[in-house]
Amino acid sequence: MNNLATRLEASAIEAVTEGLTQALSETTVATMKAQNFHWNVTGMAFGPLHELFQKMYEDHFEAQDDLAERIKALDGHAEGRLSEHLKRSKVEESDGHLSAEDMVKALAEDQELLAGTMSALAEVSGKNGDPLTEDLAIERGKVHEKFAWFLRAHLK
């Protein structure tokens, strides 16, 4: 029985792998940013934000593996260099010297960006006949939208 990846056209694999690589880069940078903020958050909301930021980076760390493994299933190269992720990512790193409120704002924007990246990946995957990547992207998009909601709730 042939697996899905071997049945896809080369152009489809290239398009989907490109989207996965973008998602991996942005997820990687977002992981480290959430962990950085977890370490450095202070103030009256320290407890709940410290916990939320940890949930985010732990979730994102697992997602990195899922995205990289899907790239490998499509016979692509899963980039592992942080320098390359930083070059590619639309999520920007932070030095962690922000107020708790600014950390929440920054992470909310990042989660919304990631949800958009996953939506674009789902669309590319669907158009190229790859329902497995499409499903992965849809599920990840839901997670990022939920994190964005949680973060925005702290700002009200």
Describe the model.
- The model has no long low-confidence stretch (mean pLDDT 95).
- It is elongated and about 55 Å long.
- It is mainly α and 156 residues long.
- 35% of the residues are buried.
- Helices cover 78% and strands 0% of the residues.
- It has six helices and no strands.
Number of strands: 0
What is Rg?
Answer: 16 Å
Number of helices: 6
User: Which sequence of SSEs, written as H and E, runs from N to C?
Assistant: HHHHHH
What overall geometry do the principal axes of the alpha carbons give? elongated
Main sheet attributes: strand count, strand direction, barrel closure: none
Name the structural class.
Answer: mainly alpha
Helical fraction: over 70%
End-to-end CA span: 53 Å
Question: How big a fraction of the residues is strand?
Answer: under 5%
Average pLDDT level:
95
Spans of at least 5 consecutive residues whose pLDDT stays below 50 are: none
